[in-house]
Amino acid sequence: MGYPAKLVNRQKLAKQLKGLKLSTVCQEARCPNIGECWGGGPETPSTATIMLMGDSCTRGCRFCSVKTAKRPPPLDPDEPKNTAIAISSWGVDYIVLTSVDRDDLPDGGASHIALTVEHLKRECPHILVECLVPDFAGNIQSIQRVANSGLEVFAHNIETVERLTSFVRDPRAKYNQSLRVLEFAKEENPLLVTKSSIMLGLGEEDEEIEQAMKDLRLVGVEALTLGQYIQPTKRHMAVKNWITPQKFDEWKIKGDQMGFLYTASGPLVRSSYRA
Length: 275
Prior knowledge:
The chain is an alpha/beta fold. The protein has helices at 3-19, 25-28, 34-39, 79-90, 110-123, 140-147, 165-168, 175-188, 206-218, 245-258; strands at residues 23-24, 49-52, 56-57, 67-68, 94-99, 128-132, 153-155, 193-200, 223-228, 262-265. The two termini are 20 Å apart.
């Protein structure tokens, strides 16, 4: 598919999302792959990661360009249905649902996410659904609600190594809590594929990356993505170092050796890229 056709696909998708009052992490997080994913190709459907529960997050991680607010607007009760309508018209086989953090809600928005999955499965029984979810402040009932909603892939990102977690992520995000979220989901529904992601280039050491990978395997995580951190704006934390493509290849080999069923590792790899 040439550039003009890709641009038309991208513009069409953006218009439809706006009309249905939906947000995408592709736009809000300024993903570098937006043109490729949204443009699609003759044998590759256009792909977008839908961001649920609005475009304002209750947390303020130092790497993320999504807007923050202590009290975001109320949830749109039509969003689960509108999301299913939009996705069913795209004809895709795989969709990723992610969300902002909503610490202002009793269940962190778990019911809203689960309801979206259930609507999707009614509209498109064949579709494979991945949910990239927040930590729900460690609430087991919230994790269970999403884990039993009918999705195939339960994803939650540890984002960085343990030592840098308090510097990189919002203070409410804890390294071990994120590991427990992934572990609880797998225990609740053993048929799920669990997935996580690590950004590189934040000043982490190789030994710390390897330990984080081991920690993920210990809680049963089967899919891992590793990508280069890219500073979204001057207001966000700076890149400490740039990882070479060869080094990313080495991490992929290491992931495969450690038993991950799927390891994607590269400078522009993001957790939901070409999922």
